[in-house]
Amino acid sequence: MIRNKKAGSRIKIVSLIVLVVLMSSFIIKQKQNYSNNSLQSLDTEFLSSNSTLDVTNDDEAMPVFKYSTLSDEIIDKIVGVSWKENSPVNLGELSYINVTYWGFDGNEHIGEMIVHKNLALEITEIFKELYDGKFFIEKIRLIDEYNANDELSMADNNTSAFCSREVTGKKGVFSNHSYGIAIDINPIQNPYVKGDTVLPKEGEPYLDRSSIRKGMIIKGDVCYTAFKDRGWIWGGEWNSLKDYQHFEKNIELD
């Protein structure tokens, strides 16, 4: 009888130990799940609060130089604006680019542009050189932010690439911007000049190219060299007119 009581006590003790172990495991697992969910929630909040393209005074932010095919969101944004049914390139021939640059405020920002897919890698490399050389750019936005109006974009000193439009002064002739193989940089500091025509008019103070100021493109500087070393043409070296903001490259199109 005594032995049976002892055996019963041992069984109860073992059962209690097993129960305690199971309960402990359950509690630990719940804590882990809560911790993971909390981290996921924090990650979601962080991404949401940092979805802007501008990166200002963030020492931990890494420079971005990447390209991709056009997302549905970007296609919806540009169709009927910078890209139209009569555009000389189809949407599949274009790439979307993000690049980090030094703004006129001295801070890092991330800009966006659309270019021909065959130049996408090269252009990200060029803007990496401009970033490393601390060449200042006021802003880089899709021209769709200006309803594809080149005059408005230039007046706001916006750096841009693709836009299906005519050559300035040549009605019915597609500009190389229409193919995504041309880029205009800091239009105010680097205006288009033909005779008495200065575009944008805000660029008139920069007609004196000997007085070098922030954002100007000068022969031999980091911006000029980054493009020219890769075979690009600079409008600042044209004879019939000067288009100091303009770089273009002749490539085989699909």
Q: Can you walk through the features of this model?
A:
- This protein is α+β, with helices and mostly antiparallel strands and about 250 residues long.
- It is about 30% helix and about 20% strand.
- The strands form five sheets. Strands 1-2-3 form a three-stranded antiparallel sheet, with helices on one face.
- β6 and β7 (about 170-175) form a beta hairpin.
- α3 (about 120-130) packs antiparallel against α5 (about 220-230).
- It is globular and about 85 Å long.
What would you say about this model in short?
The chain has 254 residues and is α+β, with helices and mostly antiparallel strands. The protein contains 5 helices and 13 strands.
Distance between the termini: 96 Å
Q: Helical percent range?
A: 25-40%
Q: DSSP helix count?
A: 5
User: Largest sheet at a glance?
Assistant: 3 strands, antiparallel
SSE map:
Blueprint: H1 2-49, E1 65-69, H2 72-78, E2 94-102, E3 108-116, H3 120-132, E4 139-140, H4 150-155, E5 158-159, E6 166-167, E7 170-174, E8 182-184, E9 192-194, E10 197-199, H5 222-228, E11 233-234, E12 242-243, E13 246-248
Parallel strand pairs: 4-5
Antiparallel strand pairs: 1-2, 2-3, 6-7, 8-13, 9-10, 9-12, 11-13
Keywords:
single chain; 254 residues; alpha+beta; 3-stranded antiparallel β-sheet; globular; disordered N terminus
